[in-house]
Amino acid sequence: MTQNLVPVLGEVNAFLQKQHGLLIDGKSASTRAGKRIDVRNPATGEVISTVADADAQDVDDVVQASHRAFTSGVWSKARPADRERMLLKLADVLEAHAEELAQLETLNQGKSIHISRAIEVGAAIEYVRYMAGWATKITGETMDVSIPVPEGARYTAYTRREPVGVVAGIVPWNFPLMIAIWKLIPALAAGCTIVLKPSTETPLTALRLGELVLEAGIPAGVVNVLTGRGSVAGQALASHPLVSKISFTGSTEIGKTVGHAAVDNMTRFSLELGGKNPMIIFGDVPVEKAIQGAMMGGFLNQGQVCAAASRLYIHRSKFEQVVEGLAAAADSMTVGAGMDVTAQINPLVSARQQQSVCKYIDIGRQEGATVVAGGYAPDMPGYFVRPTVMINVDHSKTLVREEVFGPVLVAMPFDTPEEAIRLANDTPYGLAASVWTNDLSAVMHVVPEIQAGTVWVNSHIPLDPNMPFGGHKQSGVGREFGRGAVENFTELKSVCIAY
Ligand code: NAD
User: Are both 44 and 114 inside the same structural domain?
Assistant: First the structure.
């Protein structure tokens, strides 16, 4: 273990010590029962803060506040240019607090401070600026219509997009701030109000975000933050009749529960769910490039990335070389806290996730796989798992079928592009995939055949706010990012005028 820790900012320590309530109507509010949830630092297992544990009645308070804010028109009827300006102001405010947010995230989630700075905060701020611009670019269409009655009547028609209402933004623990922002900003650009529900494990940056939203001048009540357990607060939020749209990111299992709850009220919903994403490496790819790609795609954020490359299909001509190099690279990675600037592998988010990942590794062994790197939790405080590479995995087995959501790669050889396509698609999931080759014909042949919402060529994981993101099959319903992200928070109204 290495020890080059970033000094914790005074404002971060002060925030950790606060008695966090729910953010309702711009104020921190206690819950009725006063129950608390411990928040831990995954690098040590120590409790670093506590947050309010909301029950169904508290959820009702939060949703009612959001509904009042929506119907007041303070945001939904604000000039689009004013919404855009305030969202751009929010980006500036976030930038002014970037290091504070990055440290909070690393202390709570466990990820490298470099990733917190660059992605969780840096990329998220770019997303805010991109999405702010859509507030002033929401459009409908005009249509010629041919309605034949009464005889001689003339009509014209147009559509308008109106904010859908109160949004529930339900967020997972792997990129807590960034994914909260993925939901918050398009919802606000469209004129909605939102209840943000962070994960039980990682509630801190959402609470801080709620404060910074107010600092940016966005009216109180437009953004409320609800902390609590998924099975209680999350469920009550997803089932609340005053919620008009649920934007959920999380596991496929919980996504289905949320989808069922939504349909009961005809609440609109989009689901960004799990993945078991293939990386297909053709024989022309230099070994070193393949190794670097697999390390980045598979071990970023300890593999706790919905789009992580977790199934490697390597052309048989390069299989042994790539696996050997990958195993050596994985074994050389230094393990340490996310606040340690030299650590290359950081803790998983929780003891539960550490146990779950270790269990998957054991199942893999029992099902006949061979561990060529890692394969265990080092004996030290915190929720670490060594980066793991496994081979000799039968395609029908658990490690190939199920999302591990940890630093565990399974590598398998293939001989022909057809075989690679068949194996890549032989999964219940369909979030993302990558194809590695400079053979243009192979790329043009393989890409259309892959059943996934995103296919990268010669890279894995880069996302851009202008590029739709979402899943096929069990990986979800709907797309985030781009124009569609904002339109997802609107209702389409047809207006027909007789003249
Ligand atoms: P999770 O499904 O356990 O929880 C997600 C959120 O749902 C949390 O806020 C949780 O508190 C809440 N929740 C739990 N039970 C609920 C219920 N009954 N009703 C309503 N809300 C409930 O997911 P997680 O473990 O936090 O995150 C990991 C999962 O998220 C992985 O499967 C990963 O692939 C997925 N994910 C997907 C994407 C994507 O964009 N497709 C991005 C990141 C993570």
Answer: yes
- In contact, 27 and 63? CB cutoff 8 Å: no
Q: Are residues 491 and 455 in the same domain?
A: no
Q: Which residues contact 371 (CB under 8 A, 6 or more apart)?
A: 361, 364, 365, 388, 389, 390
Active-site residue 272, yes or no? yes
Does the C-beta of 230 come closer than 6 Å to ligand 1? yes
Q: What is the pLDDT of residues 250-263, one digit of tens each?
A: 999 999 999 999 99
Does residue 174 line the site of ligand 1, with CB under 6 A?
yes
Question: Is the CB–ligand 1 distance for residue 53 below 6 Å?
Answer: no
In a domain, 108, yes or no: yes
**300 and 202 fall within a common domain:** no
Three-class secondary structure of residue 220 per DSSP: coil
CA 175 / ligand 1 centre spacing (Å): 11
Query: Is 249 near ligand 1, meaning CB less than 6 Å away?
Result: yes
The label of the residue with tokens 């005889």 reads: 151
Q: What's the CA gap between 304 and 291, in Å, rounded?
A: 19
What are the pLDDT digits (tens) for 125-162?
999 999 999 999 999 999 999 999 999 999 999 999 99
Among this protein's residues, is 192 annotated catalytic?
no
Task: Give yes or no for a contact between 245 and 489, defined as CB atoms under 8 angstroms apart.
Answer: yes
Phi-psi region of 374 (alpha: psi -120 to 50; beta: other; left: phi over 0): left
Q: Quick: pLDDT tens for 80-107.
A: 999 999 999 999 999 999 999 999 999 9
**Is the omega angle on the peptide bond into residue 150 within 30 degrees of 0, that is, cis?**
yes
Catalytic site residue from 105, 272, 403, 480: 272
Please identify, by atom number, the ligand 1 atom nearest to the C-alpha of residue 229. 11
349 inside domain: yes
